[in-house]
Every structure is written in structure tokens, then in C-alpha cells.
Amino acid sequence: MESTNFIHDIIDEEIAEGKYRADEIHTRFPPEPNGYLHIGHCKALIIDFGTAAKYGGKCNLRMDDTNPAKEDTEFVDAIKEDIHWLGFDWGDRFYYGSDYFDRDYEYAVELIKKGLAYVCELSAEQFRDPAYCGDLTHPAVSPWRDRPIEESLDLFSRMKAGEFPEGKYTLRAKIDLASGNFCMRDPVIYRIRYIDHHRQGKKWCIFPMYDFAHPIQDAIEGITHSLCSLEYEIHRPLYDWVINNVSVGCKPRQIEFARLNITNTVLSKRYLRYLVENDIVDGWDDPRMPTLCGLRRRGYTPESILDFCQRIGVSKSNSMVDIGLLEHCIREDLNARAPRRVAVLSPIKLIVDNYPEGKTEYFDLPNNPGDPEAGTRALPFTRELYIDADDFAQVPPPKFFRLKPDGEVRLMGAYIVKFASLETNADGSIKAVHVNADLETGCGMPADGHKVKGTIHWLSADYAKPATAILYDRLFTEENMNDLPEGKSYIDFLNPSSAEKVENIMVEPSLADAKPGDRFQFVRTGYFCLDRKNPGVFNRVVGLKDSFPKKA
Ligand code: ATP
Ligand code: MG
Q: How confident is the prediction for the chain on average, in pLDDT?
């Protein structure tokens, strides 16, 4: 994680100026526990934890649970699990934003006493009315701006005591009703909500707004650099205003970076939640989801995801990253370490006519041809085999180097076989392809030294085990899901063939011992991961063909 970026340049400068010692650098990752983490969060995690690690500083994990409406402990546990899975650790610095509600309240009272906040009586409707919120050329208006401090203090404490209905009053920061930045037009910093908070229960019926609570949380924890995505840039003046006007001891600096966007993908918890709640996907960990638990179930390794995030780097302007790069990263990782196994996804019978019935012979196949240390395993060979339907063509297209009438082919790691005859069912479909093996050659060259062009994979029909494969593909058909045509919703672009279930595939006997989460390269087919939930189901992580480097 020894990379550098514009955030590190800023910090380097501050350290050079003597503002901080390197080991004083303190960041935080502040997820809202209203959903599962997605790969966009991974970018933020690398920036937050990676920056702290680079300087020998600290990074806190803080649940941003100020908004009581949608939070759940299920999400808190899942967030922790996913962060640990990626290899980051917050040590003993785990916090909840809601733990600071008492302090938030005190700082709000401090602002009122300083004449910097007031209780306002505009209704939600009036807030949206141009007569009150103004526009680009007209300032906002609040008839309650000059309410006496004592009156605001009294009303605010009675708001807290539950004397008023929701929406009756708000507390607003007194900043600048004419500001060109609408965030600064006396923003609401507290509102009344009668709702149980997942940790505070009924203790509070007033809740601080994010823009008020967040800088205070950062300051209380001694955060030096509050790193967040670009949409908070416009809120930064308010962040600074809060920090500078309440008596917190620490003055964190907010720095924004570009969000991660990936083609054919949505990275918004609201959208992802909708897919889950409407059973469009099989939960937050559906292998097509860009959530960390979904990627994990699909078969992605933490290393491949971190590699991806490192390669795209950290920038200050929004851009779209090709999902092909993510696929490239997992392919590269699994190519180096996934054991090779044989699976036949669309099995047809291959009968070796000249091979004795009842005989079994074992051929050693390499677990990874690129890595001699990975060793070999023995694959049983018998008279009746399975091969993939795609590896035989009755009417072969040009340059078809697999099995065809009058052709020959190498059975991977075993004999060369020559076509003998075709056995069909009444409907014309293939019952079995008959061949004769060159039993002298074994794995070696034919006696006359001629070249056999094609090699196909095979399994013994006596020893192969049935299994199921799910061929996953991109969840959305449209590249740029952030910029959809007029009147279209992201739901309109769901890929109808993003999860193709293939039952009754055949796999080599050793795969009977595979454990949930184990990853393999099915030779000539793709990378697969044994599902963590459904026994006997192999999820396709990614195909073998890499289109990315050519495009890049
Ligand atoms: P969403 O829009 O998906 O709901 P969010 O910003 O509300 O995301 P949070 O839980 O508040 O989600 O995010 C925690 C941190 O992760 C924030 O600092 C946020 O800036 C960052 N983050 C969220 N999405 C992305 C993304 N796509 N790329 C980079 N950082 C992100
Ligand atoms: Mg957020």
C-alpha cells in the first residue's frame, strides 16, 4: 500500500510544515449501517486505512448512525466482517456516531448561546417554498432568525423533552441566508423525530443532521484528516463552520476524492437495497452484486479487489472504470493460484471402442501447468468418457481443431483418439461418439511423429460426479448506469441472462472433497468457486478470455 496520491501530497506538506508528526495522522471510515459495503467502499477503505498505515497513524471505524430510520445491527456486523476480510483493522477504535448525541446536544446549545443557532418554525413545505428558500438570485428568508437567544434555548430544551410534534420546530445554524452555497443558508442542524434509535432506544426525539454531527464526531475522536467522496465537497464550508464555531479541541481537515464508478454496475446502497428487498437478486450476497459479500461469494479474493482499487488510483475527478479491469484482476490472481480441475459443462458420451471394458487407468494431470510446485493429481480413464458437446462438431466450421468426423484429437494428458462412428437417438441427437485410441502413445507423441492439433478435456463416465454450475454475467446490460436514457430506470437494464444455471454438469472425482469457497480453474472453461450456501453448486467467477488488455 506504499502508493502516493494527491491526499498524501497534502499530508506530506503539512508534515513538512510541522503541523503534524507523521504518526499523528488519524483518519476514520464512517459507513452508515443501512446496507452492506460495496466495492466503492473498498476504495474509501484503502484511502482511509491505507493513508493511516502509510504514515504510521491510526484509522477509526465509526458507524455513522445519526439517522435513526434505517439502521440495523445486521449491517453493523456485516460491515465489520467485510472490512476484516479485506485485511483492514481498526484495533480498539470502534465507535458509534450516536454515542456522541449528548455532546452534539451540548454543542448545539453552545451555538444558540453564541447567537449562532436559532429555533425556526418553518414547516417542511415552507422550506421548499421559493418564498422562504429563495433561489440563485434571491436570498432565503426565515421569520425566526432573530428569535431571542433565551427563547431558542427554552424551545430547544423542550424539543428535546418531547413537548412538540415532528416538524413543528427545527434548530438552524445562523450562517448566511444569501449564500451562493445553499448548504450555508442557515442549514437545519436538528430535527424532531419520534422513532426508536437502534442503540439509543427512546432516549432522543431530536436528532442532529449529518452535516452538524459528522464534523463533531471527527473532532471528538481527534481525526486529523476526514477523507470522503466528492459529493461532500459542497458541504465542506459547513464542515469548517461547525468545527470553527463549537469549542472542540481538534480541527480536522476534510479532503474529497472521486467516487468509484464501474461500468455495467450500480454502486448506490439505495439501488442495491431495492434489488434485495424486491427479490430481484438472491440477497446482499448474490454473486452478481458489487457488494463485498457478493464478490466474496462469487469467488473474488480480497487481493484481487485491493489490486483493482490500487490500479485505478485516487483522483479528484469522477470517472468510470471498465468492469473488465476488475475481471482482469481476479483472472490474474486465480491464474496464479487456482488449482486446475476438469469439469464438463455440457456432457456427451465418448466411447473408446478399442479400450477394454472394466479397465481403469490413471493419468497424472498438472494442478497448474505454470507452477511445477503445484504438483499433479491422477485422473481415472475408462472406456466410456464424457466430453463437452462443444468439442465435437458433425459439420465443423473452418479451423475447428476439436473432434470431428474423420478427425483426431488429443484427450488432455492421455491418448490420442480417432473418430470411428456416431451413435444417434431417434430424434437425431447424439447418443455417443465412438473413437479408437492410439493405445501405444499414452501421453506421448504418435509413433510416426505427426502433429495432433487439438486437445480436449474429458472425464471417466464411471468416476465423474454430477454437480451444478451457475454461469454469472454482468448484472446490467448498459455500460454507463449513471447516465441512463430519459425516462428509463436502472431496473430496465437488468441482464436477463446474468445467472445461467447449468444442471448435471460432470466434475472430476477430486472435487467431491472441495470445501465451500474453494476456487478452481475448470480447464478450458473458466474460474469457478464452490458456493458457500448451496452444496454442489459452482459459481462462475469469470471466464478465461480476457478482453481487457486489448481494450486498454
Ligand atoms: P451509497 O451512496 O452507496 O449509499 P454512502 O456514501 O451513503 O454510499 P456510506 O456508508 O455513507 O455510504 O459510505 C461510507 C464511506 O464510503 C463514505 O466516506 C463515502 O464517501 C465512501 N463511499 C461510498 N461510496 C463510494 C464510492 N462509490 N466510491 C468511493 N467511496 C465511496
Ligand atoms: Mg453516506
A: 95
- 233 catalytically annotated: no
Domain of 69: which CATH number? 3.40.50.620
Give yes or no: residues 204 and 125 share one domain.
yes
| CB-ligand 1 contact for 233 (6 Å cutoff) | no
Q: Is the CB of 482 under 6 A from ligand 1?
A: no
| Whether the predicted pLDDT of 551 surpasses 90 | no
Q: What is the CATH number of the domain that holds 280?
A: 1.10.1160.10
In a domain, 45, yes or no: yes
Query: C-alpha cell of 136?
Result: 440563485
For residue 371, what are the contacts with CB-CB under 8 A and spacing of at least 6? 336
204 Cα to the center of ligand 1, angstroms: 26
The pLDDT score that the predictor gives to residue 549 is: 53
pLDDT of residue 547: 64
When pLDDT is cut at 50, 70 and 90, the band that residue 318 belongs to is confident
Query: 174, 269, 341, 410: which one is catalytic?
Result: 269
pLDDT confidence band for 73 (50 / 70 / 90): confident
Closest residue CA from atom 22 of ligand 1: 41
Cα first-last separation, the chain: 24
Give 438-493 pLDDT, tens digit per residue: 998 888 888 888 889 999 999 999 999 999 999 999 999 999 999 888 999 999 99
Residue where a domain terminates, one of 257, 288, 314 = 257
Q: Tell whether ligand 1 has an atom less than 6 A from the beta carbon of residue 41.
A: yes
Ligand 2 mean position to 263 CA, how many Å?
A: 21
pLDDT at 256 over 50: yes
What is the bridge-based pairing of β-strands 188-192 and 170-173?
antiparallel
Q: Do the strands 384-388 and 347-352 form a parallel or antiparallel pair, or are they unpaired?
A: antiparallel
What residue owns the CA closest to ligand 1's atom 10? 31
CA pair distance 309, 50, nearest whole angstrom = 11
Tell me whether residue 259 is one of the annotated catalytic residues: yes
> Own/partner pairs for 18-23, CB < 8 Å, 24+ apart?
20/224, 22/55, 22/56, 22/57, 23/55, 23/56, 23/57
Residues spanned by the domain of 206: 6-257
Active-site entry in 103, 259, 402, 418 = 259
Can 316 be counted among the known catalytic residues? no
pTM here is 0.93
Q: Is the CB of 39 under 6 A from ligand 1?
A: no
Q: Which of 228, 257, 286 is the last residue of a domain?
A: 257
